[in-house]
Design brief:
Layout lengths: L2 H24 L29 H4 L28 E4 L7 E2 L6 E3 L5 H9 L1 E4 L4 E4 L7 E2 L7 H4 L10 H4 L3 H9 L8 E3 L11 H16 L6 E6 L2 H11 L1 H7 E7 L9 H7 L11 H8 L3 H5 L13 E6 L2 E5 L8 H7 L4 E3 L6 E3 L4 H15 L8 E7 L4 E10 L11 E5 L7 H5 L7 E5 L10 H11 L4
Helix pairs in contact: 3-11, 7-8, 8-9
Length: about 475
């Protein structure tokens, strides 16, 4: 490795050591109770009835009827006599799938140790104008979401190697999956996840094909019973893409759907930061400037920009004074938000790791055009006949709605100058206005006083999801 790589390694090692020490100090004594539901897991030394070492559920007819068999090493109190549960499929949002090198299974997102070293080499890529995808850097493998554990391993805990102090970020779907497992759901039988390469478009064919295969499999393994879907954040937009692309399959397989923290009309002003100064998706050991190297060529990031066709009450804004002239950039109109992004990134470049090659990576017009197409595609999507839809959204959290740069003399200053944010209501990432504006006929709405990811561990939300799965809403 060259000097730059050695420096990166040392920096990553120092960061990793510091946060690992903090994690060990804070985490192990006790995992917070997250569900508030009457669930109980195996005690130390006992085997969970649905653990990988046990196959009782298969011996008992694939989980359709289960009985207590203490003589086979199972604890009586942990095995329900009869479990009749619907098939469930979980769809994560942007940043919510572990990404790996498929050959070595090396985890490159999310990781605590040497985060930037691996992020630059594996997550950075180059835009392919022909296929309209993000391709790997020369000499690097195409990373993909972790697909083990019936799609659940990639979305349960985003860094399973350590006890991370930021539990409500890295644990992700862990609370929901654990609660369902302890209440009779069996991974691979009636519980599945659909991780996806969240750098690509939300309507990327590979993602939608995987989702189609998963819901068809879940239905097939459950005697034709319709599937219940739980999506988080951008996973809801992936769902809309799926319904638009495979309407007949969606009607055949989906029974009901609950969406949590969806950016229906785009994210808040925080998404502007991602394309101007970089945003690390909450990964505290990843430099935002490093994360920007992916954002500039990721269609999914452009797809999260505020909708230009939505009639905003409080539109996310970028305000500044250019050489004394006040300017305000909005989601629509002659002064649209893409103007400062395009101008600020006019000479933006990235330095490739190892080779030191300098690549221009300004505002990607093709990614932006693709994002417009994707949003046009799902704008008029309606629910398949008979599908019940429920929407959960966050409130009472400080959510950036406007970026104010003050006075600037040059567009390039927008990439480095400290920004003042003005906030409104939301979950900290998505404004309440966007999160409520789904355009679908909802059977139920639930405002929750919680953060964007914290909702997945919120007792109110978990109880709501549990009632949703049993048709008690």
């Amino acid at each position: 490795e060259g000097e730059e790589s050695d420096a990166e390694k040392k920096c990553g090692l120092a960061q990793g050591g510091a946060f690992l020490a903090l994690a060990i100090l804070l985490a192990p004594h006790h995992v917070p109770s997250t569900s508030g539901l009457p669930v109980q897991g195996p005690k130390e030394g006992e085997k969970a009835w649905n653990s990988p070492e046990n196959d009782l559920f298969r011996k008992l007819g694939g989980g359709q009827g289960r009985e207590e068999k203490a003589d086979q090493g199972f604890t009586k109190s942990k095995i329900p006599f009869v479990v009749d549960v619907p098939p469930v499929v979980l769809v994560p949002g942007i940043g919510g799938s572990i990404m790996v090198d498929p050959k070595s299974q090396l985890r490159v997102w999310i990781r605590l140790y040497e985060a930037e070293y691996y992020f630059k080499r594996f997550m950075w890529g180059v835009w392919n104008s022909t296929t309209r995808t993000l391709d790997p850097l020369k000499g690097q493998p195409r990373v993909e979401p972790l697909l083990t554990g019936h799609g659940l391993d990639a979305i349960r805990n985003l860094d399973p190697s350590v006890h991370w102090p930021i539990y409500d970020y890295v644990s992700y779907f862990d609370s929901i999956i654990t609660t369902l497992e302890y209440n009779g759901w069996v991974p691979g039988l009636n519980l599945f996840g659909v991780p996806w390469d969240w750098r690509q478009s939300m309507c990327w064919p590979q993602t939608l094909e995987r989702l189609k295969e998963t819901v068809l499999k879940a239905q097939r393994l459950n005697q034709g019973r319709k599937v219940k879907l739980v999506s988080h954040s951008m996973g809801a937009l992936v769902m809309k893409c799926f319904i638009a692309t495979y309407p007949e399959v969606a009607e055949q397989t989906i029974g009901s759907w609950v969406s949590v923290a969806a950016p229906w009309q785009g994210a808040s002003a925080k998404i502007y930061t991602e394309l101007l100064q970089g945003y690390n998706l909450g990964n505290i050991v990843l430099d935002p400037a490093c994360a920007k190297g992916v954002s500039m060529v990721s269609p999914s990031v452009y797809e999260l920009l505020p909708s230009g066709t939505f009639d905003w009450v409080d539109p996310p804004l970028i305000n500044l004074r250019m050489q004394g002239v006040p300017l305000s950039f909005k989601p629509s109109g002659p002064q649209r938000y893409d103007i400062p992004m395009r101008n600020a990134n006019l000479n933006y470049t990235v330095v490739l790791p190892d080779s030191g090659t300098v690549l221009p990576e300004g505002f990607n017009e093709e990614c932006f055009a693709l994002s417009e197409e994707s949003r046009d595609m799902i704008r008029s999507v309606d629910l398949p006949p008979g599908v019940k839809f429920y929407n959960v959204y966050g409130v009472n959290q400080t959510t950036p709605l406007m970026m104010d740069y003050g006075s600037v003399s040059d567009w390039a200053e927008l990439m480095t100058k400290e920004v003042r944010f003005f906030s409104g209501d939301g979950d900290g990432t998505v404004s309440t206005e966007s999160a409520r504006s789904h355009g679908l006929k909802a059977a139920g709405e639930l405002p929750v006083d919680s953060t964007h990811v914290g909702m997945l561990m919120d007792k109110v939300v978990l109880s709501y999801v549990y009632d949703f799965l049993y048709d008690r809403l």
